[in-house]
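User: Could you check the structure of this?
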Amino acid sequence: MLCSKNSCTGCLSCQNICPKNAIQVITDKQGLWQPQIDNEKCINCGLCHKSCPVYFKPHNEENLAEIYAC
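Assistant: Sure, the predicted structure tokens are below.
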């Protein structure tokens, strides 16, 4: 499992980056996002985990750009 439905942001980065189309991000009855992995298609490349904002941690926060507006 990538992340729990309580922490999934619904950004779809895992679904979009998967080279085997093994991930579908669905919503449950409560409207919470949850990635589902088709283990038959998954090749365990790890791209989904690397692209997930729940797990992404900047290597060095000093190198992050300052945000002035959005």
